[in-house]
# Entry
Amino acid sequence: MKNRKIVQLETPHAQQVGLNHAKRRRAHIHRCERIIACFAVLFVILGFQILSSRRTLTKVNANIQQTQSELASQKEQGRELNQQIKQLHDPDYVQQVIRSKYDYSKKGETVYNLNN
# Structure
């Protein structure tokens, strides 16, 4: 236990010093509250920005994925078309297509259609 042999003087000057100390303490507390409030507002704003950016990033990634799949299908279609172009430069293939698709026959040739 503390020894209570020292007593504070209750002079007007001591009271004024005590009041000044209390005012400074309250001002310090209010200042800290304002700073905390500013940081809280800043935190909320930045949090919203991060969430908004994340949502936008998700949409962009989905669009990239969709575009890449469309690109892959277009490349496959291009390969198929290039293959058809190569085949159309082959006279035997062209003759085969004409005969099967348009029932073309050579002079003196008889075509028989057999149904399964």
